Amino acid sequence: MREPRTLSRTGGLIVVLSGPSGVGKDTLLQYFLKTTPGCVRLVTCTTRPPRPDEQHGVDYEFVSVEEFRRMQEAGELLESAEVFGHSYGSPRRFVEEQTARGLDVILRIDVQGGVSVRKAAPEAVLVFLAPPSLEELERRLKGRNTETEESLRRRLAEARREMKAASEYDYLIIHDSTERAAEDLRAILRAEHLRIVKTS
Ligand code: 5GP
Question: CB-based contacts of 107: which residues, under 8 Å, 6+ apart?
Fold first, then answer.
């Protein structure tokens, strides 16, 4: 018989948080990280130019197309995807180092990325954040005021596609109240830490 403690996993979790643009992933994450010890967010890379309020190394590592390609070819990315015409990718090293230290690493990435992470790391926990309704999502995106008409249309079309991919995920959280959504996410992580790891 295995020692009880060896039945559940050691080390941190890889947690993917996806959801349509405008659903409030950043709002939830900011609140969640402030109120939950033991979790860190992965800063991902992108070739997209920064928005006025974004900071290099905080919101993203903003890299050139050449640098992105180099990272990809060197195997430095756990996954990468094209979103709205730009490349995005998750640096592998940070994820490995932090989970080895016992921290849960949250990847705020799109659904293509989530599916790739599942292939690369089958133990990853995939959480989908959904708006209470698509009408509410449109209202939030318009309220953000950072999008042009064209970009808004693209993001709404993409949101509908992303919603369909929710069935590939392990958990669904409705982002109604941020406090409640954070509580749901904490409950998921707690359960995942208590999960018995099957050995074959
Ligand atoms: P935004 O340009 O609005 O910051 O992000 C666009 C989309 O790209 C969002 O759905 C965001 O979650 C996703 N994203 C950000 N970083 C990554 C990444 O490293 N990989 C993937 N696959 N998607 C990402």
Answer: 14, 15, 16, 17, 42, 44, 90, 95, 113, 117
The number of the ligand 1 atom at minimal distance from the alpha carbon of 25 is 12
Probe ligand 1: pick from 46, 71, 80, 117, max atoms within 8 Å of CB?
46
Domain count, the chain: 1
Query: CATH number of the domain that 116 lies in?
Result: 3.40.50.300
Residue nearest to atom 1 of ligand 1 (CA): 21
Question: What range does the domain containing 26 cover?
Answer: 5-199
pLDDT one digit per residue (tens) for the chain, 200 residues? 677 777 888 899 999 999 998 899 999 999 999 999 999 999 999 999 999 999 999 999 999 999 999 999 999 999 999 988 999 999 999 999 999 999 999 999 999 999 999 999 999 999 999 999 888 888 888 887 777 888 888 888 888 888 888 999 999 999 999 999 999 999 999 999 999 988 76
The residue whose C-alpha atom lies closest to atom 7 belonging to ligand 1 is 110
Q: Give burial (CB, 10 Å; 0-12/13-18/19+) of 131.
A: buried
Distance 88 CA to ligand 1 centre (A): 6
